[in-house]
User: What shape does this take?
Amino acid sequence: MVIVWSFLAGLFMVYGLPYFFSGVRGKTHLTPFGNSSSQANVVWGWLIIIVGAIFLHLAHNHAHPIRGFIFFAAGALVAGLITSSYWPKHEAKRSRNK
Assistant: This one.
C-alpha cells in the first residue's frame, strides 16, 4: 500500500497547487462548482492538498522511504503533466469567452 498511498499523495498535493495559488493571486478559476471566487479556489486547493497529506500519512513511508519517495514523485509528475496540458486550454477558452 506504500506505493498506492504515496502515488495518490503526490498526485493530490500537486493537483491542488494551481487552485490554491490562483486563489492566493486573487484570480478566479474553474472548480467543480463552476467558475469560483478566489477565496473558493484557495479553499478548494487547500482541501485537495490536505487529502494528499492524509494519503501521505497513510503511506507510512518510514518503512520504505525510497520507494515511497519514488512513487510520491511519480504521482506529482503525473499531476503536473495533466495539469500543464489542461490549464492552458482552459485559460485560452476562458479568454475567448470574455
Q: What stands out?
A: The two ends are 46 Å apart (CA to CA). The mean pLDDT is 88.
